[in-house]
Design brief:
Helix content is 25%, strand content 28%. The protein is an alpha/beta fold. Helix 12 links the parallel strand 26 and strand 27. Helix 2 packs across helix 3, helix 2 packs across helix 5 and helix 9 crosses helix 10.
Amino acid sequence: MSLAGAPLPRRLNLARHCLSDKPADKTALIVAGTETEAWSYGAIEDAVLRLAEGLRRRGLEQGGRLFIRMGNSLDYALLFFAANAAGGVPIPASPQLTPRETGLLLRSSCARLLAWDGSLALPETEGVDILTPDDIAEMKRAPAGSYADTAADDPAYLIFTSGTSGTPKGVLHAQRAIWGRRPMYQGWYGIGADDVMLHTGAFNWTYTLGTGLCDPFANGATSVVCTGERDTGVWQRLIARHGVTIMASVPGLYRQMLRAGFQPAASLRHGLTAGEALAQPIRERWRADTGRELYEALGMSEISTYISSSPSVPVRDGSPGKPQAGRSVKILENGQIGVHHSDPGLFLGYWGEQAFDGEWFATGDMAEIDADGYVWYRGRADDLMNAGGFRVSPLEVESVLLQHPAIAEAGVREWPVSGSASIIAAFVVPQPGAAPGEDLIMGFVRERLASYKCPKQLWFVKALPRTANGKLIRKALERP
């Protein structure tokens, strides 16, 4: 397997690839929180290797899983890299998950080690060794260990994402995933060692871990991430203060920034956007107000971004761009985008299932490719919804709604609220004689689902649209 002419190394470790052989004194990471911390490559590598040794001493074996139950702090990122450096498999989980959801993922992953920040609620953890904040602090004072000698195909990290069945699916990536990100460097970012990359996401999001940390580190650049308060002007201030050259976010945040009168400092060359389709009005206003371009990318948890525009791939309005150089992509017979199994960035398989061994991976994204190589996105082949860049299964939300005793039927779909924004909406049929209040039901759901999975709109209806065989037609759900 190779990309852009570079053969995939037989032995590869993601953390080593990102952190070793960099100028030790160069600033690798700026964490803007209550106070601003600047970390050099040497300091980050030292902290990661100390934590890696500490994890080994706590029993993390090669291939063992570390579940990260923490808020948006630097320790989150350090532990992600440390677990990988030790040959383990970090599981970056959202702090928005409820204890119920966390418990389900813990059991599914069979993780026996959990890193905790001392504040988030924990599920039942019998049989799980919990690393407390004091434990983590002690590990940082331990002697530094070394990088595990991992093969390119060895597991590197595990991401749980909504599946079409309504049950979160574990996406298992190999160490080679970091090599598979190389086409993004010029195919999307246009990044070099002198760049300063600002990512607006939190450390727990794989978009941030990849685009905001792994890729700047792999290129010897500097990353800026915010862990503090996020008022409407924070991104403008950070860009000016730290000389940010590239910014990465989601369309919804670009919209908010423009509404707040965002004006970039001269250092900013362009912005990157992913997670959901970029609406043309946002791009047009960004161009008009900032004089900069927004480069869009299309991707998914199983491969990250693989189609994009960039400084070297001109934007074509309405298209996310072209397959990045070195990718093998085509439209399959069913109309879905297919990625060839030879791509190093393609996942190993779904946790607990047989490893992916087909020739082409069907992404579930429907599209067309024109004569110039540009991809035209036509939506999902399944019912997965997009909630601020997170894909959410309607089945998962519906199953929670149906647990409420006053609800007889429930349907959930993505609901457009403007030409460039949508929300999760729920359509509920009450039990005969019941008159449940919206606030009561929404409170019930919020206790059981992460906030980004919760409906933002709920309508009571008399019946749900169904086929002759009784199957719910989600696209036909309409407000009363």
